[in-house]
Amino acid sequence: MEKHVAEKVRIEQRFPSWRELLKPTTEFKHGYYHYPFRISDAKYLELPFVREWNPLDKDWKLPPNWKEIFLTKMKEYLEKFRSFKLFMDICVRCGACADKCHYYIGTGDPKNMPVARAELIRSVYRRYFTPAGKLGKIAGARDLTEDVIKELYYYAYQCSLCRRCSVFCPYGIDTAEVTWIVRMLLKEIGVVHRFSLISIASSARTGNHLGLLPGGIAGALQSIAEDIYNLTGIEIEVPINKKGAEILFVAPSADYFATPHWYVCMGYLMLFHEIGLDYTWSTYASEGGNFGTFISYELAQKLNAKIYQEAERLGVKWILGGECGHMWRDKHQYLATMNEPPKTLEDPVSPITGTYFENAASTKMVHIAEFVADLIAHKKLKLDPRRNDKWIVTLHDACNYARAMGLLEEPRYVIKNVCRFFYEMPEHTIREKSYCCGSGGGLLTEEVMDLRMRGGMPRAMALREVHRKYGVNYLCTLCAIDKAAFPHLLEYWRLPVAVGGMMELVGNALIMKGEKERTTDLRGEPLIRRD
Amino acid sequence: MIGIIFGVIIPYIAFAIFVVGVVYKFIYWAKSAVPLKIPTTSGQQKSLKFIKRTIYDRFDSPYTKWETAVRMILEIFAFRSLLKNTRYYLDRLSQRDARWLWLFAILFHYCLLLVLIRHTKFFLEPVPSFVEMISELEAFKGVFIPSVYVSGVTIIAALFLLWFRRIFLSRERCISLPSDHFALLLLLAIVISGNVMRYFIKVDISAVKGLLLSLMAFNIPQAVEFANSIEPMFYIHFALGSFLLAYFPFSKLMHAGGIFFSPTRNMPNNNRAERHVNPWNPPYKGITWQEYYEAYKDQLDEIAESGYKVKPEVL
Ligand code: HEM
Ligand code: SF4
Ligand code: SF4
């Protein structure tokens, strides 16, 4: 290893016997376990058994009949989710998934192997729902005890629901689905982590995870418009809550405030202004993301329903969605099932190019990368890719839209048109095999920093390779969680690479009518040209 | 006595358990709802015309019924997902090909298939010509006497290879439950006893065929007669086989049927084009626009007053 590696990160791999693996782990390591929910959030969301509790305590103050509730609910979910039932039954423990999980790779903890993570609950399933389970340990079954609950909590929140394991499983067993259902079951006995619930409660109340009120959103959009004015000399009007607009635009709320999300939001506004799009932002549906999908079906529905309600109220024709990962798993796979699309919506047709987005005909929601790629293909945008010359770009395929949507080529198409230096990371770390940033699925929280940094290791190493080989200095990702997570991760692994979104690159390259000569990029840094 | 118990009673019971068990399992799975369309997409989605989809994308991220069917067929006959296998080595920070697992799995399953096809000659009269043909093809007729069936021997090797994985690789050892070893050992015992019977301790094949035909015709007296005339060696193989049948529906071996039900593989990735309906979809519970409006009336009215838009403040 070269001298840049400042911190020694030891990854110890342990391979206990199958017997030991059945014993619950109850020692919670700092940096790996999640804090418990805040009373106020849990109350607001009407969760059962709201109380003070602490994962480090011996007594979790579970309800007296917790076991009965857990098993009854488990039976219910087995009936409600065929995936769960099937995945409990058919795993052959071939181990193909074992080393596909970035948390396993980064921590060496055997219970982070996807197959072992699923076995945590599968052993309970065997005990209570199969005939052989009566034999106990020898049949791989174990009793449901408080220690098992603790272990389930510990490991269900060490999975980022990334689905990488599912790509490699010969039966498509999706440990993310199993983890999701374990989280639902834990919720039924009042065991939920803090981080997601804070955002879910905010979003349920205010319409977005950050808890921004209407004035705050208007203010943020105004500041962004001011930044654009300073850059281009163009005054942009930003429509909000406008009835009768053609398109409702929804983005993850981090885009209003966080960096580097901010530059992406500048990109949206510049593009929409330039093409004269008749659209509107909404304050009621001001969140594209959906942390509810990290915890349960009902909480997911509670948040994504607002988008359709608002689309109907405003009378728009269709919906355009911004850059985000889990948001697009939600919009692509969940939204239209959890809520019936309003009859008032019309087929999504690009007003600029006339393209009919056939693949979104029912959900009526189009991804920004699809929309922009279509504009570029029809030559509706004037672009100067040399304005991105400073950046040697690589693309991180965010887990959710890569493995739950298949959005792979659209971003590449756009990026290759707006910048001149683009290199791919190694083949086994991109596209459907993409490695998670380590912070998805509700793990974007301080208290699990060790886990996140280790889980992000495979991605960081892949990036290091292209950084050394081609001098890559810009990691492009269309995911809001990535944009928040990667800066820490890359600092930890000592990679001097900037993180940003596709729309930032588009914003840089976009030549706008009447703009003044640009001297800086969207970040306010001087433009550099390479010839 | 041995003949009646292991030749007649146990096979009937085992077969009944097998049929009832498999049907039960299928109904048990089919009964559960499929609330969401959750294909794991492993390729480019269908979207715009100029976004090219390769042939691989079409079945790794299928859009139509047919593409989905191809995906399933490839999973079932080619173990396509397993073919993507790699292995992560920490010290090299890279991945290594691990398709030997695929190779062992394919070897085992195809040999099993061949063996099963060849076994039909014991209970089908007349023997279908393709069964004869397969038997002759794989036996290298004339090289050895009696001719050696390649699949019958290879399957032993394949099973040992699969088992050695579980014994010698630390990671695989760690996740292997007793039942995983058991399934392999049971199959090994069956195929080894079968081979022993074929090459070393011969049994009366025509009596075996007579037994199976009369069992299938429910001609019990005749079956008993045949059963009593067969050598004990046969019953080792036959009893183990019966046990496998009875064990099958309640074990991981049901993966053979389960793969057809797997929602991450058998659903098309056309989520936004065709709505999937959840039979138990609960009603929305949360605030409405009206409640939201009342809570933040001042700020919302302010946005309304400025004409539903914001402009940059320009100095
Ligand atoms: C539709 C038919 C089938 C398909 C698609 C299928 C597929 C697979 C796959 C992909 C694996 C994982 C790879 C491996 O560990 O070898 C596997 C494992 C296995 N299959 Fe099958 N299988 C089928 C039928 C059967 C049948 C009928 C049997 C036996 C009666 C069987 C016995 C096994 C065993 C014992 C293993 C585990 C191997 C081990 O433990 O390493 N399979 N199968
Ligand atoms: S790849 Fe699938 S079948 Fe194999 S161990 Fe993992 S979950 Fe089980
Ligand atoms: S979904 Fe991702 S994080 Fe979870 S077990 Fe699978 S690979 Fe690991």
Topology, pairings included?
The complex is a heterodimer of chains A (531) and B (315).
Chain A: H1 18-22, H2 39-44, H3 66-80, H4 82-90, H5 102-107, H6 114-129, H7 146-156, H8 164-168, H9 175-188, H10 194-206, H11 214-232, E1 238-239, E2 247-250, H12 254-257, H13 261-275, E3 279-280, H14 297-314, E4 318-321, H15 326-338, E5 365-367, H16 368-377, E6 393-396, H17 399-403, H18 409-418, H19 449-455, H20 457-470, E7 474-477, H21 480-492, E8 498-500, H22 502-509
Parallel strand pairs in A: 2-3, 2-4, 4-5, 6-7, 7-8
Helix pairs in contact in A: 3-4, 3-9, 6-9, 7-9, 11-13, 13-22, 14-15, 16-18, 18-22
Chain B: H1 2-31, H2 55-60, H3 65-78, H4 80-83, E1 86-89, E2 94-97, H5 100-119, H6 129-138, H7 150-168, H8 170-175, H9 178-199, H10 205-216, H11 220-229, H12 232-247, H13 255-258, H14 289-295, H15 297-305, E3 309-310
Antiparallel strand pairs in B: 1-2
Helix pairs in contact in B: 1-11, 1-12, 5-7, 7-9, 9-12, 10-11
Bound molecules: protoporphyrin IX containing FE and iron/sulfur cluster (SF4) (2 copies).
Share in β-strands of chain A? under 5%
Low-pLDDT segments of chain B: none
Q: Mean of residue pLDDT of chain B? A: 89
* Strand order across the largest sheet of chain A: 3-2-4-5
Q: Give the overall shape of chain B, derived from the CA principal axes.
A: elongated
> Residue ranges of chain A: pLDDT <50 for 5 or more in a row?
1-6
- What oligomeric state is this? heterodimer
Biggest sheet overview of chain B: 2 strands, antiparallel
Q: Would you mind describing this structure in some detail?
A:
The complex is a heterodimer of chains A (531) and B (315). With 531 residues, chain A is mainly alpha-helical. Chain A folds into 2 domains: 157 residues, Fumarate Reductase Iron-sulfur Protein, Chain B, domain 2 (Orthogonal Bundle), CATH 1.10.1060; 309 residues, no CATH class. Helices cover 44% and strands 5% of the residues of chain A. Chain A has 22 helices and 8 strands. A 4-stranded parallel beta sheet of chain A has the order 3-2-4-5. In chain A, α11 packs across α13. The radius of gyration of chain A is 23 Å and the shape is globular. The two termini of chain A are 34 Å apart. With 315 residues, chain B is mostly helical. Chain B has one domain: Fumarate Reductase Cytochrome B subunit (Up-down Bundle). Helices cover 60% and strands 3% of the residues of chain B. Chain B has a two-stranded antiparallel sheet. In chain B, β1 and β2 form a beta hairpin. The longest helix of chain B has 30 residues. Chain B is elongated and about 105 Å long. Chain B starts with a helix and ends in a 5-residue tail after the last strand. The mean pLDDT of chain B is 89. Classes of the chains: A mainly alpha (531), B mainly alpha (315). At the A-B interface, α3, α4, α6, α8 and α10 of A face α1, β1, α8, α9 and α14 of B. The structure holds protoporphyrin IX containing FE and iron/sulfur cluster (2 copies). The site of one iron/sulfur cluster (SF4) has 13 residues of chain A, from α6.
